[in-house]
Amino acid sequence: MQEKGTISIHTENIFPIIKKFLYSDNEIFLRELVSNAVDATQKIKRLASLGQYKGELGDLRVEVAFDKEKKTITISDNGIGMTADEIKKYINQIAFSGATEFMEKFKEAKDANEIIGRFGLGFYSAFMVADKVEIQTLSYQEGAEPAYWVCDGSTEFEIGEGELEERGTEITLHINSESEEFLDKYKLQSILDKYCKFLPVPIKFGTNEQEEEDGVDEEGKPKYKTVEVDNIINETNPIWTKQPNELKDEDYLSFYKELYPYSEDPLFWIHLNVDYPFNLTGVLYFPKVKNDFDFQRNKIKLFSRQVFITDEVKDIVPEFLMLLHGVIDSPDIPLNVSRSFLQADSNVKKINSYITKKVADKLAEIFKADRKGYEEKWADIGLFVKYGFVSEEKFYDKAKDFVLLTNTNNENFTLNEYKEKVEPLQTDKDGQLIYLYTNDATKQHSFIESANNKGYDVLLMNSPIDNHFIGHLEQKLEKTSLKRVDADVADKLIKKDDAPEHVLTEEQSTKVKEIFNKAISKPAYRVELESLSPEELPVTVTQDEFMRRMKDMAAMGGGMGFYGNMPDNYKVIVNGNHKLVSRILEADTEEAQAQLAKQAFDLALLSQGLLTGADLTEFVKRSVSLI
């Protein structure tokens, strides 16, 4: 029987569009064809288990081969095969999926959804790299005749008698001149490794040489010979397809090394396994997150029935969980015809919420079971937890019980614990609770020491997310504000009723301000005279908390660009009660007064890391002259 016909589509213009533009990356032709072959193989296995197929199954596998001289790539399987009528139905009618009818026929069968394949558009991805495609196939049905189909990439096809003698399908691609890069062993191996590494049916791609013991020599030592063995490129039962109670820690760590060969061991992991109201399996690992904002995203791999789809999972996984590594597999995640882009729908939203809950529950479990171990991991997971805390309300609801605040003594507190610790001393005269923090304990050491001398505690907030974390804490915590320890002198950061009295007269105060303004002579620095404890520094340089915070966010790209363009302005706080101020007033000459004032100001700049260049050189020379 020989027959010619036209592929059933509405317009001849659509076929070249499908060939060239349906898929964003032409290498996925191999994924589609191998996936179809796997589907066909699983179907015959399923039919046999249902008693619908009585024959021998044989060694069920898919094979990929190529011939560089003939410029062909062949994908073959020993699955259900097709009759000539089924070729017309599944291959020639693009819009029809063979899986639809198969699912309808066996809809009562348990897990039938797992063996749904797609012929249709997936098959036509072959024409992205081939200018001719041939199918040789023999159906599993009793009495079926082998069939043959060929198409040159136009809407014309031929169908006739085939040559296969055993059940299955063989698809041969005649590679076009623009795609000869795929006629390469290493190129094909890399594509198979990327997309097919965990398919549930063995995939053979050529052979490998292997040493095999071959008896012993005259001295009784073993002899070896080199043999050819099948190169099976995939692990058919990856750990996410198993139950957690079947696995040990070594299994999870080994799989992690397989996914990320050059990474440090993860801190811990979560095994996902849910079948209602959607199907989802997977393993998510918590890596050691470096304390910078250059997050390594796209480390979670999305699979559908063990076929790799993408590592762009931002629609499924909340933004803050993009820091995790691992695998998610779900047949319920909707994909477009290319299987490459997620479509937002209710299932995706449910999966997103489920993963958020599982991660929060895991962290809460670790915190309660092993507080010490959790604190030891905090340096690595703190950035991640804070990111979720500020960006995902559902995560915040749980994370508020296990997010930690770390102070400059490296002590960790929950939010409630820290409130109890500092409330007695760090509540100001208006009833506002003040949390002090530093983003650079070394640079701001003098300010921290000043706060500690008053019995105040100082938090360490030096991660990239902390600007946002601080703002979020102020929103969530009642009557609480956070101030950077160098934003003002300690007495002004937490205002009390018992402020020290002025020792200077009004005339002296005016004179001191004049001396400092003249000595500094910089418009960006505004001099203010304060009545502080004599133990405080004579001069302190600070920057307004609000303005500095806005500029920090602008520097991180936080949408505060207006503030980022504004010039830096500082407040010069002169402690009118310090003995150095009295010495300045008592100096014999204006020059001596200016020199002492400038020295005190430069010391304040130096403590903030603001004294540089020529000003620093001048300070050093002046210091030598004053010794």
From TrEMBL:
Key words of the record: ATP-binding, Chaperone, Cytoplasm, Nucleotide-binding, Stress response
GO molecular function: ATP binding; ATP hydrolysis activity; ATP-dependent protein folding chaperone; unfolded protein binding
Residue ranges annotated for the Histidine kinase/HSP90-like ATPase domain, each copy included: 25-179
Record carries keyword Membrane: no
Binding site for ATP: E32, N36, D77, M82, S97, G98, T169, R339
The keyword Cytoplasm belongs to this UniProt entry's keyword annotation: yes
Pfam family, any one: HSP90
Domain of life, source organism: Bacteria
Similarity field: Belongs to the heat shock protein 90 family.
UniProt name for this protein: Chaperone protein HtpG
Species this chain originates from: Mucilaginibacter limnophilus
Gene symbol of the encoding locus: htpG
